[in-house]
Amino acid sequence: MRKKGNRDMRKNRRVVCLAAAAAVLLSGCSGRVPWVSAAGESVKEEAPDTAENRLEAVRQSGMLRIGISADYAPFAFELPDEALPYAGADLELGRYIAEELGAEAEFVEMGFDDCMAAVAEGSVDLVLLGMLPKADRHTVMDYTDVYYEPGRQVIIVKNAQEEKLREPADFEGKTVAAQYGSLQAQLLAEQFPGSYPELTDNAADAVLALRQGRADGVILEEVQAQKFAEEYPELAVSRAALDGPPKESVGVVGGVVKGEPELLQEINGILKKVTEEGRYLEWLDGANEQAMSLSRPTR
Predict the structure, then answer these.
(1) Is residue 283 within a helix (H) or strand (E), and if so which, with residue range?
(2) This model's pTM is above 0.85
């Protein structure tokens, strides 16, 4: 579960330079994270103004600046070790993209809305947020190709309520939890109109609300739900069938500064390789395991 102290650490806006020797200590996710900075700070000089486009500027500077929001496991989440503050599948992806471009990744941790503003103004080159390609977001960035398609969505409940909560309609008048800003929150709004929504900072907080009796169900991706059910025997995956994501939400995409077709094309070529080789699914699986080991809700 994310701790308040970690959130306060981010607000201090410190820059953390991760040396290669320290980075190999990162467990769960395989790669190193060369740079992590707080929002609004830079650890490298800006690219020379001789660059004709952003792709050329990235290659000249040797740095790809990537906005992340570390509150959405397994895509990006906080670590308790201050020397290595963040991990997740999107950080692995960002590191890989940067290496393929001949650069290092500088991860800039901000809130989701701040990431939207940063890519809109061009203070980052790319955002990786476990993000769905909603139409309103496209006005401030160009979407990459899809690099991950969400799996089946389910709802977990307490074992004692499993037989009573077998259909979405059974949750009318009940409290259903989901992480704020996620696909699950969207499904909650669309498919549980008669329930009381409980939006939390992360999935672990939603599960904690269920275990403490403050929620009657939690919407999660099936793989994550099964892991929580295995971890906490008092929980079970409900038989209530949820519809899949909306057709326009075809999968998770990144966001590139608008009007930079050269950079977008290069990143899409890298994403094609990543998806064809199954790399992202491997990173996601490792990040899931790591997040579960770090984010165990407590009473």
Answers:
(1) helix 279-294
(2) no
